[in-house]
Amino acid sequence: MSKRGKNELVQRQACRFNDKNCSSNELTTSAVLVNAIGVTQSREQTILRRCVFFDRDGVVNLSPGSGYVTDVAEFSLHDGVGEVLQIAHDRDWLAIIVSSQRCVAKGLIDLEGLERIHRLMQIQLMDRYGSKFDAIYVYTGQPGTEQWEKPRPGMIHQACKDYAIDPGKSILIGDQDRDIEMAISAGIGQTIRVLTSLGNQENKVVANQTVQSIGEMVAAVRELL
Ligand SMILES: [Mg+2]
């Protein structure tokens, strides 16, 4: 049966179930409702989410340089990040951190300490911007987690699986070559490099965009989303 024929059948059935004497207005409303349900169901099965992936140190918070953030007192949130979260959530994008924190395997901080830092970060973001990260994936350097080590794409693959994300329609913001390389390996559609950290000025991996500050990062994301 042709699409038009099917629609006419749906209209007739919808009308019959509602009222023998239904007006043309009621008939149209019922037909649209039936068709709309069909469209919604097929969309839910096929549409994947879009996501802004963030590296943590040097993007979300002030870079600790060659060291690590091992205490909540050392964690300093970049101001514009909350704004990016607001933009992302307003436009129905997810916002997820993918971070390397080898300091756990090195014994400089334990998982509870790391969790404390992330809890503080989420509280600060909610207090100041009313928005927080949807998830945080961390490579800790512990044995058996090698697939999550940057520049391998394991963390992004896992997040895409867990949250039904389309990597090709997603964005990654990072400051180091390993972030951009990880994004390319995972098939991320757009990459933004932020040059906020000392020592990341000589890069070998090319990002789609390079910005000089967190303010420029906010503007670049606003343009892309
Ligand atoms: Mg970084």
Helix-strand blueprint:
Layout: H1 3-18, H2 24-46, E1 51-54, H3 80-90, E2 94-100, H4 111-129, E3 135-139, H5 154-163, E4 171-174, H6 177-185, E5 190-194, E6 209-211, H7 214-224
Helix pairs in contact: 1-2, 3-4, 3-7
Bound molecules: magnesium ion.
Feature tags:
globular; binds magnesium ion; 225 residues; alpha/beta; Rossmann fold
Describe this structure in words.
44% of the residues lie in helices and 12% in strands. The protein has 225 residues and is α/β, with parallel strands linked by helices. Helix 1 (3-18) packs across helix 2, helix 3 (80-90) packs across helix 4 and helix 3 (80-90) runs parallel beside helix 7. The model is unreliable at 1-44 (pLDDT under 50).
* Average pLDDT: 83
Q: Whole-number radius of gyration?
A: 23 Å
User: Reading side by side through the largest sheet, how are the strands ordered?
Assistant: 3-2-1-4-5-6
Categorize the overall geometry: globular
- CATH fold-level label of the largest domain: Rossmann fold
Poorly predicted spans: 1-44
Report the span from N to C terminus: 40 Å
Q: Which percent range fits the helix content?
A: 40-55%
CATH class of the largest domain: Alpha Beta
Class per helix and strand makeup:
alpha/beta
Would you report the number of β strands? 6
Q: Supply the CATH architecture of the largest domain.
A: 3-Layer(aba) Sandwich
Biggest sheet, open or closed, and with what strands and sense?
6 strands, parallel
Number of helices: 7
| Cofactors, ions and other ligands in the entry | magnesium ion
The fraction of residues assigned to DSSP E strands is 5-15%
Could you say how many structural domains there are in total? 2
